[in-house]
């Protein structure tokens, strides 16, 4: 079974530039998550989709971050404009469905963003 | 969301058992205890979860205190590949989001 795919794996940009990350979840997984992991900290949930609808985006800085999941499969996360404090690893995860007791999440390898 | 407390780091010798503690004194009756781990340069991966009873799977065992205010992840024979950050997370049953803390960084010595 193919895992969660993310690209690019690494990205270096200057502050005030824009950047986009792509995620392809495990086939059949209805729920998709984007996390931000700053060095030395645990991942923090940014946004959660159920199919193509947003379930939770309470931690998403909406003035600069946006995310979409068209057709309920792939997803993109965009930052515009980037700030120095956005330097982090951006992790995508997916799970079968929102309303399951287990709801095990499968994580991709992440995209390491460096903002200079 | 209820919080968990874990030691920042622990050391173990290869092929010895490892007991990773987690305190969760404010756990509610419906919170599940989940453990994930994150190997270097990888995304987190699921390890195990439980509600009240002790649980075993191919990766680890989870021992839950009777009052559920603490739990322990047990790796029966640590290998070098078990070196990772281990996260203890409380989760509501209906697909509640994962709220990661700092976790415990486990190092394994040969």
Describe the structure.
Chain A has strands at residues 5-7, 10-13, 19-24, 31-37, 44-50, 53-56, 65-68, 75-79, 88-95, 106-107, 111-115. Chain A has 116 residues and is an all-beta fold. In chain A, a hairpin with a 2-residue loop joins strand 5 (44-50) and strand 6 (53-56). Chain A is globular, with a radius of gyration of 13 Å. By secondary structure, chain B is mainly β. In chain B, the strands form two sheets. Chain B has a five-stranded mixed sheet with strand order 1-9-8-3-4, with no helix packed on it. A four-stranded antiparallel sheet of chain B has the order 2-7-6-5, with no helix packed on it. The chains are: A mainly beta (116), B mainly beta (110). Chains A and B meet through strand 5, strand 9 and strand 10 of A and strand 4 and strand 8 of B.
Task: Give the H and E element order of chain B.
Answer: EEEEEEEEE
Mean pLDDT of chain A: 93
Distance between the termini of chain B: 38 Å
Q: How many strands, what sense, and barrel or not for the largest sheet of chain A?
A: 7 strands, mixed
Give the fraction of residues assigned to helices of chain B.
under 10%
Helix count of chain A? 0
Largest interface: A-B, 27 and 23 residues
Strand order of the largest sheet of chain B: 1-9-8-3-4
Envelope shape of chain B? globular
Rounded Rg of chain A: 13 Å
Q: How does the overall form of chain A come out from the CA principal axes?
A: globular
| Order of H and E elements of chain A | EEEEEEEEEEE
**What's the β-strand tally of chain A?**
11
> Which runs of chain B of at least 5 residues are low in confidence (pLDDT < 50)?
none
First and last CA, distance of chain A? 37 Å
Compute the number of helices of chain B: 0
Task: Give a brief description.
Chain A is mostly beta strands. Chain A has no helices and eleven strands. Chain A is globular and about 40 Å long.
Topology:
The complex is a heterodimer of chains A (116) and B (110).
Chain A lengths: L4 E3 L2 E4 L5 E6 L6 E7 L6 E7 L2 E4 L8 E4 L6 E5 L8 E8 L10 E2 L3 E5 L1
Parallel strand pairs in A: 2-11
Antiparallel strand pairs in A: 1-3, 3-8, 4-5, 4-9, 5-6, 7-8, 9-10, 9-11
Chain B lengths: L8 E5 L4 E6 L8 E7 L6 E6 L4 E2 L4 E4 L5 E6 L8 E8 L12 E6 L1
């Amino acid at each position: 079974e193919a895992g969660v795919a993310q690209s690019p794996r690494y990205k270096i940009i200057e502050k005030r530039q824009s950047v986009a990350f792509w995620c392809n979840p495990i086939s059949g997984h209805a729920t998709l998550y984007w996390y931000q992991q700053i060095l030395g900290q645990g991942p923090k949930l940014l946004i959660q989709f159920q199919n193509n609808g947003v379930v939770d985006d309470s931690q998403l800085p909406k003035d600069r971050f946006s995310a979409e999941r068209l057709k309920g499969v792939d997803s993109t996360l965009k930052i515009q404009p980037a700030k120095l404090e956005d330097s982090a690893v951006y992790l995508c995860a997916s799970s079968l469905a929102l309303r399951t007791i287990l709801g095990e999440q499968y994580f991709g390898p992440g995209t390491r963003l460096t903002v200079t | 969301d209820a919080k968990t407390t874990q030691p920042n780091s622990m050391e173990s010798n290869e092929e010895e058992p490892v007991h990773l503690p987690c305190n969760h004194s404010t756990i509610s009756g419906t919170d599940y205890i989940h453990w994930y781990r994150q190997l270097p340069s990888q995304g987190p991966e699921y390890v195990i979860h439980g509600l009240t009873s002790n649980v075993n799977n191919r990766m680890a065992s989870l021992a839950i205190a009777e009052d559920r205010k603490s739990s322990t992840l047990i790796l029966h024979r640590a290998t070098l590949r078990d070196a990772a950050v281990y996260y203890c997370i409380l989760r509501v049953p209906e697909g509640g989001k994962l709220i990661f803390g700092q976790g415990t960084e486990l190092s394994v010595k040969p």
